[in-house]
Design goal:
This protein has nine helices and no strands. It is an all-alpha fold. The protein folds into two domains: 149 residues; 151 residues, Four Helix Bundle (Hemerythrin (Met), subunit A), CATH 1.20.120. The termini are far apart.
Length: 312
Amino acid sequence: MSRWRRSLHLVPARPEVRPSSFVRVAVVALLAQVLIVLTGSGVRLTGSGLGCTDWPRCFEDRTVPPWGFHHWVEFGNRLLSIAVVATAIAAVVAARWRRPYRRDLLWLSVGLVVGVLAQAVLGGILVLFDLDPRLNMGHFLLSMVLILDGVVLVHRAAERGPMGHVDEVVRRLSTLVVAAAAVVVATGSVVTGSGPHAGDDRAARLPFELVSVARVHAVSTWVFAAATLLCAVVAARRGVAAGLRRPMHVLVGLVVAQGALGYTQYALGVPAGLVSLHILGACLVWWTALVLWLRVRDAAAVAAPTRQEVRV
């Protein structure tokens, strides 16, 4: 009996999650947020936005729809949202069991759960209001907020520490880059709300001329590209560490590819396949801009006390 008792004492009362394991859970939760953006765009691009005309049921008299392409594209996206909620809940549980425990990681994980549930409710309201384009914009922009939450969660959980030192100029440029990225995402959602891919032929569109809002989006993209390139050049000339410059280089490449894709899809009449790739690119650009900003901010926070000591 004593041997069994000793063995039982070796079994933890609850699982203990190592920091490296929690990072993997957080990455999965973040990838799930990107995936649901892509499948949600697939619903709209295939004209399946009203494949289910009710919420939370698919129809008033049935939860599961009959077989039909548009029905199951929309219903499949709803089913996938359950898996996305599960990844967010898994992040909450893992954060609670993580050792050493960190409150900030728990609250960031809780933010994912709350955000995903809010997305589900907003998605239901969107259906009940026949895909109102303003609600559709809100649906997409809330996803960008959840990606922000997920990127911050992964960044903090990784505990890499500062990858060098940066001065105030580079820090401000990185802030300009992420702010410009947010503007590009916002103007892009206006273009989508004004364009042909409403999700259903019955859905209304924003009262803007597509050519005009596309030009505004293009200008914001050029400003974003210039800010990104300037940040990368200034960082290189000031000898910023390679670990900090790497996301700048990746972001420059993504911006060039995304810009080329945007002009191509516009010239070809915004075909659904290219629009889907453009939405994926928007998620990757936003993700990378956030990583750049977070890493530079950490490095600037370390450099600030050093500058103060020099003044003393």
